[in-house]
Amino acid sequence: MAINMKHISILGSTGSIGTQTLEIVRQFPNEFKVVGLTTNKNSDLLLKQIKEFKPKAVAIMDKSKADDLLNFSSAQVYSGIDGLNKIATLHEADTVVNSLVGSIGIEPTYNAIKNKKNIALANKETLVAAGSVIMDEIKKNNVNLMPIDSEHSAIFQCLNGENIKEVSKITITCSGGPFKDYTKQQMENATVQDALNHPTWNMGNKITIDSATLMNKGFEVIEAHWLYGIGYGYIKVVIHPQSIVHSLVEFVDKSIIAQLGMPDMKIPIQYALTYPKRFQNSSKPLDLTEIKNLEFSEPDFEMFPCMKYAYEAGTVGGTLPAVMNATNEVAVHAFLENKIRFFDIQRLIRKMMDGHNTIKSPNLKDILDIDKLTKERTKSIIEEEMVVNN
Ligand code: MG
After folding, report:
1. Whole-structure pTM value
2. CATH architecture classification, 317-390
3. How many angstroms does the Cα of residue 383 sit away from the middle of ligand 1?
4. What is the Å distance from ligand 1's center to 260 Cα?
5. How many angstroms does the Cα of residue 155 sit away from the middle of ligand 1?
């Protein structure tokens, strides 16, 4: 059995997806071996993970914390973005789980692919900002890219054994987020706490805010485009508050295949790691008679314009999605720090997209440069506005 073990590096092992990935590893000790772990700054949890999973190497973004960790760690310790890249390309790893948050995840994904690693991708920004570059490298290096997101895992499962040319529509479901039933005025006055109160999914802060603006759903549309090569006109979003139907694929004969399950991220994470096999687990089974109602409705693009911006950025392509993404990342952090209000997120995205001259066929460096520049510019706009408003 050990000969077929998967050797995994987990980027972002102390976050929501990272810790759930480790729970799966814990359940199947004969199938998976952890060889690399990384964290942003949670050195306490990383140390516990090192003791339990005995990886060969780890990385922590914060250099001073890396030095502290050296005294206690049985694993090699790296730091900063170089450390992330090191763990993403470890010789011992055959699979890299990327559960980083933000565009910091792009470069390690790229380097992992270049080093022939299979990718299990939870980092949305990789495909949103750098979809064309990443998909080119996936093909060139002949590695697998498995989605971890519940919606993309659902679409992947619906497409199993099907001919992509016979697909007529992909429908991505969306819980609607915490502000589904808010009025415009309620949303305008929404606090960070309101926005973090997601009805069905328990996730990290950044993605929870993205689920309140529905930017997250916009990201998922762009990711679906890259993962499955489907034009934006054939990718739809439907509001489904129960988060039980994770997505649907319609074929040319009008037959629709959907994937259902409890809202439990461990299911898509596990599938990304075990595909093409399925392993029995202890997740709670779905009982449809307990759910009673499954509701579906049209999304409101006027109330949630971020979704519209994502369709626009995706359709224009080039560097425009990277600008949208970078602005969003800075704006969401500023909102979490109470520096801006909820609607400022969408306003800043619109402003930065309008001010951008798109580069048509960017390479990785173009994308990373635009990402950095956009983040700096957005930060300074926020600072300037705060001065004016105070
Ligand atoms: Mg999702």
Report:
1. 0.96
2. Orthogonal Bundle (1.10)
3. 31
4. 13
5. 11
pLDDT tens digit sequence for 136-186: 999 999 999 999 999 999 999 999 999 999 999 999 999 999 999 999 999
Residue 72 CA, ligand 1 centroid: distance in Å: 37
Rounded to the nearest whole angstrom, what is the distance from the C-alpha of residue 150 to the centroid of ligand 1? 5
295-343: pLDDT as tens digits: 999 999 999 999 999 999 999 999 999 999 999 999 999 999 999 999 9
Question: With 0-12 CB in 10 A as exposed, 13-18 as middle and 19+ as buried, what is 276?
Answer: exposed
**Are the C-beta atoms of 14 and 49 separated by less than 8 Å?**
yes
CA of 242 to the centre of ligand 1 (A): 13
Two tokens at 159?
Answer: 């497409």
**Where in the chain are the domains?**
6-147, 153-315, 317-390
220 alpha carbon – ligand 1 mean position (Å): 7
- Cα separation of 183 and 284, whole Å? 35
Distance of CA 211 from the midpoint of ligand 1 (Å): 9
- Whether CATH 3.50.50.60 fits 6-147: no
Q: Which of 335, 112, 68 is nearest to 215 (CA)?
A: 335
Task: Report how far ligand 1's centroid is from the alpha carbon of 152 (Å).
Answer: 8
